[in-house]
Amino acid sequence: MTNWRAWALLTLALALGMIVALRRRRAALADCMERASRPSDLKDAELIYLEKRFNVSEPVRLSTRLDRAYRMPSGLVVLLELKTRNVNRAFSSDVIQLSAQRLALERKTRQVVAHHAYVVAQMPDGAREAHRVQLISEEAVVALVRRRDAILAGRINPRPAVSVKVCRTCAYQSICPDRLGR
Fold first, then answer.
1. Which tens digits make up the pLDDT trace of 26-37?
2. Distance from C-alpha of 9 to C-alpha of 26, rounded to nearest angstrom
3. Burial level of 105, CB count in 10 A (0-12/13-18/19+)?
């Protein structure tokens, strides 16, 4: 083999080694940043799902996408939802979303999922705060799904939102019979 070929192979090997080392470093840094962003209760937990979809058909049809799920040393799985918003709080819709995720994950994997979860609100300035929320029961999730299906099928009428702010941003306000009363 000629001298220039040996140098070329050596240079290529070094370049590939550096690429592998940089990727490992980037992955380690990302893991460190992810661990630092966790609520303190999840510091010793193992990240087991990241942006993972779960679909179930029983007891109702659900399709959910988990932001993150962590396995505690006890084996209990805890859900976490990341939200970018202008207000630093968790909403009822977050609790419903996480509760549906809990139902789907438990049905699909038979793992035990905690009755609490976390909503991490990220503010426009980059500040993050974790809010621990209590999830609703499987029966309540099933009732909400069945109510939604009945509304969409026209079997029952929807109720107006409790908050006027919600009504102002609703996609159905132009056809809502209660819009005039608000």
1. 766 655 556 567
2. 26
3. buried
